[in-house]
# Entry
Amino acid sequence: MEAKLQQWLPLLTLILSSLIISFDITTARILPTDQIHSAIDEVNSKQGPLIALVMSYVTEELAVGSSGEFSPDKKTPYVDLYGRRFHIGSIRNVRVVYVLTGQRRLNAGITVQILLDHFNIYGIVHYGTAGSANNSMSFGDVSIPKYIAFTGSWTWTKFNSDLQTDSSNENELRFGEYNIPNGGNNLLSGLKFKTEEFYSVGKSMEEVFWLEINNKWLQIAQNLNVTLERCSNVTYCLPTQPKVVTGLKASTADVFCDNAAYRQYLFKQFGVSTVDEESSAIVMTAMSPGVPVIVFRGVSDLAGGEETWSSTSLMDLASINALKAAVEFIDELGKRISKDFL
# Structure
């Protein structure tokens, strides 16, 4: 039996690989490749190029539906690819496709690559929630960063290495400095932050730490007139009016930051104002082929700087405010697309 299975395994693999697995929740069907590609080709030819709206959490996707800003396409409201649903339609008469990536860098990067491989994408607008590492950024505020770094790649050093004795090293974290009650050595030694290998069309591989957002798009964002929400419902309101801030720095790592000391370190060492788990992957994937990209992140927590966990109301409010800013940007961008602004 096992020998027969081994004999048929290559053929079975070939048959499965010839299909793009697309699961339609309403009909539980698996659609073949030609039907999927036919639908996408029609979307690209009749509706493209599209602005891609990308989010990572279910709460953020729900904000799109409840906002009333998205109008699904009547003929092709969505396309399912590789377990992800790509919603086709418009926001304020601008043709868009939006998709939920799932959490952290791997999911985010894969989803954006699928977007770029299959759809005619004009640019990518990423929005979501974030923790604040900057005391001037509080709940409900929206950050539109100019620079984003991946701060989750390290060299973990040996105990008694040069890291603990050489104070001139940059981009490092010494655990001993955080010993209580006094600093000193620590068996965990420390971390040296690493750069990323960035591959882009027409250039050699570069070692980068900071990724810079498209300057023309950032200029549009700086001139947006957005009134953010102060209340998530009739019973919960923030004490002050939230604000939109452009031009700050953000960091991404496959780690949810809920530690006041590390929050303070990121701000002091790198000038980071917000922390999240997806932005750098989305930005790097888009930048590789030269596709414009921008990030809107609403503050839902203080990355460990608050005394207690943030409520669900704050998460909802942060999503709503980040989406409001992103929608205003899409609206303004749509006015410029026909003028070949980019």
